[in-house]
Specification:
Elements (H helix, E strand, L loop, with lengths): L5 H5 L7 E2 L2 H7 L2 H17 L2 E14 L6 E12 L4 E16 L2 E7 L8 E8 L5 E6 L1 H19 L25
Parallel strand pairs: 1-7
Antiparallel strand pairs: 2-3, 3-4, 4-5, 4-6, 6-7
Helix pairs in contact: 3-4
Length: 182
């Protein structure tokens, strides 16, 4: 899939064209593309041209038999963009709990899916044709999404009150090196 653009992977207008793996997403999704998309969607949200439903989490009230102190948790969130032409539904199934590190309680999520992995994915729907156009794991996408949002936040905090906002897509790669998948 080398040389494939994000648009041709995710935004084709063919019903369920792709079921991708993290490596496909990693090859298609550049840091610049993610910064631009994140900036664009937040602008749309501010202008009332996009919508999202905040994440919800539901826990089973019974501890895991195999992982004492942990509970099954189902998370979902969704949103849509007229400009992108898609509705995204993110679903995560995990084993969540807490542990103590140096006496400090910390939230932990265990990789208990087959192969000691986490389990989450995204389904994209074409908002005009109402059909799913892609299903892919959220692992790499989630890391880059968080990094891009953090970069946008850092840019907005560094804007002098007398100057125009700095576009996140103009961040030099030397400053964005922390966004690279390590």
């Amino acid at each position: 899939m080398s040389g494939t653009s994000v648009e041709s992977l995710f935004l084709s207008r063919t019903a369920l064209r792709f079921s991708l793996i993290n490596d496909d997403v990693r090859r298609a999704l550049t840091i610049d593309a993610m910064l631009e998309a994140t900036e664009s969607i937040y602008r749309e949200l501010g202008e009332g041209q996009a919508v999202n439903r905040p994440r919800t989490q539901t826990y089973l009230p019974v501890e895991s038999r195999e992982n004492p102190g942990f509970h099954y948790r189902f998370k979902s969130q969704e949103g849509g963009s007229l400009a992108a032409g898609v509705w995204a539904l993110r679903i995560t199934s995990d084993m969540a709990g807490h542990s103590f590190t140096a006496g400090v309680k910390r939230r932990r999520i265990l990789p208990v899916a087959t192969g000691d992995r986490f389990c989450g994915f995204v389904i994209l729907f074409d908002i005009e044709r109402i059909e799913p156009v892609a299903i892919f794991p959220n692992g790499y996408l989630q890391k880059v999404r968080v990094a891009a949002l953090s970069a946008l936040g850092a840019c907005s905090r560094s804007w002098p009150s007398t100057s125009a906002p700095r576009r996140a897509s103009s961040i030099p790669m030397s400053e964005a090196s922390s966004l690279r998948d390590g």
